UniProtKB/TrEMBL annotation:
UniProt-recorded Gene Ontology molecular function terms: ATP binding; ATP hydrolysis activity
Organism annotation: Gossypium arboreum (Tree cotton)
Classification via NCBIfam families: GET3_arsA_TRC40
Taxonomic path: Eukaryota, Viridiplantae, Streptophyta, Embryophyta, Tracheophyta
Family statement drawn from the similarity comment of this UniProt entry: Belongs to the arsA ATPase family.
Domain ArsA/GET3 Anion-transporting ATPase-like positions: 60-380
Protein name: Putative arsenical pump-driving ATPase
Gene Ontology biological-process annotations: tail-anchored membrane protein insertion into ER membrane
InterPro entries hit by this protein: ArsA/GET3_ATPase-like (IPR025723), ATPase_ArsA/GET3 (IPR016300), P-loop_NTPase (IPR027417)
Length: 383
């Protein structure tokens, strides 16, 4: 692997002392009707490269996950930029409570809404969901208002139906103590919005920058958890309903009750749909990102095993921050690189990881920030 200098790749254009990167150009977006996806050869049986990932207009989801700090955000953002530059309307979503999309793109993408990213050739939007903060707000609202403010809050988070049901059931204790996994539920509910809303139908590539490993696994198993919880709620509801049906029928609430139960059932079905989609080999791929250290490789191996158990398709493993051979003239770097090569061997011999397509990504000489830097990284990683 040759030494990789990001700075050198831009040196003719260095124009600012404070920022060695050229400012991302704000290009006029091409009109939607010129949308075209590069036509490429049909995929092969082996794990194909970026040509395969970019081909076709059917919506595809890429989830990037791994241990904290290995470069998930950089890899996710660089993939999103590459998709957009290859003609896809792309959405990059962060479900990591410690968002770094804004830092990675060097643009303010906060706010929990779709924000356009400036720089790529085709529309690229970012969405940072702050699940933990939302859960805290939920808890505060429940405390401060005795549960009354919760519905508005949950409505805002796309979970209004669930709040409606809980409110109607008067399960105040559940409102005071948010069910475990509510933060992930908020993230999932956003995904449900993508699926259903016409506003999102233009997006043909959706890239997730997921939270570190443990969160990711909870996120993936959440639909099952909610499926079971909603089942319980519905059963409980039935019990309450039969105990109070005489009174309710006098006040004409029977129909409302039925509608509400239908809505809850719809929510459950949506969760199942999301769960199935994330396990759909045709549309979804989970890409594991790691670094060449024994600890990171071991965690990646466990992650792969868990994803296998959840039937989530995994084909690629990015090994990021590999020291280039030119580092050999530095004694410290030479020892470090030897260590990294051992970690790469470990991957090749690992029963969980050896079958994955190995993508080696070099440690570059600058922090990867802004669209030009992400494009640079994307051209190295996504081939
Ligand atoms: N190949 C690389 N060469 C040089 N710097 C890199 C490389 N990959 C990532 N970095 C830098 O490492 C830091 C961490 O990267 P990043 O935020 O992408 O990791 P992460 O896995 O998403 O972290 P977190 O788990 O905290 O969200 C950033 O400063 C990023 O610019």
């Amino acid at each position: 692997m040759a030494a990789v200098s990001f700075l050198a790749s831009f040196s003719p254009r260095i124009h600012s002392l404070s920022s060695p990167f050229p400012s991302p150009a704000i290009k006029p977006k091409r009109p939607t009707n010129t949308f075209q996806v590069r036509s490429v050869a049909a995929p092969t049986e082996d794990v194909a490269g970026f040509d395969d990932m970019v081909s076709g207009t059917q919506r595809k989801y890429y989830m990037l996950g791994g241990k904290g700090g290995v470069g998930k955000t950089s890899c996710a953002a660089s993939l999103a930029v590459k998709f957009a530059n290859n003609g896809h309307h792309t959405l990059v979503v962060s479900t990591d409570p410690a968002h770094s999309l804004s830092d990675s793109f060097a643009q303010d993408l906060t706010g929990g809404m779709l924000v356009p990213v400036e720089g790529p050739d085709f529309p690229l939007f970012a969405l940072e969901i702050n699940p933990e903060k939302a859960r805290e707000e939920f808890r505060d609202a429940a405390k401060n208002n005795g549960g009354t403010g919760v519905k508005d809050f949950m409505d805002g988070m796309g979970l209004g139906m669930l709040a409606e049901q809980l409110g109607e059931l008067k399960l105040g204790e559940l409102l005071d103590t948010p069910p475990p996994g509510l933060d992930e539920a908020i993230a999932i509910s956003k995904v449900m919005q993508f699926l259903d809303s016409p506003q999102y139908s233009m997006f043909t590539r959706i890239v997730f920058d997921t939270a570190p490993t443990g969160h990711t696994l909870r996120l993936l198993s959440l639909p099952d958890f909610l499926d079971a919880s909603i089942g319980k709620i519905l059963k409980l509801r039935e019990k309450i309903a039969s105990a109070t049906s005489a009174i309710k029928s006098v006040f004409g609430q029977e129909e409302t009750r039925q509608n509400a139960a239908d809505k809850l059932e719809q929510l459950r079905e949506r969760m199942v749909k999301v769960r199935d989609l994330f396990r759909d080999t045709d549309s979804t791929e989970f890409v594991i990102v790691t670094i060449p250290t024994v600890m990171a490789v071991s965690e990646s191996s466990r992650l792969r095993a868990s994803l296998n158990k959840e039937n989530v398709p995994v084909r690629r493993l990015i090994v990021n921050q590999i020291l280039p051979p030119s580092a050999l003239d530095c004694k410290f770097c030479a020892v470090k690189r030897k260590d990294q090569m051992r970690a790469l061997d470990m991957i090749r011999n690992d029963p969980e990881l050896s079958s994955l397509k190995l993508i080696q990504s070099p440690l570059v000489d600058m922090e990867i920030r802004g669209v030009p830097a992400l494009k640079f990284m994307g051209d190295i990683v996504w081939k």
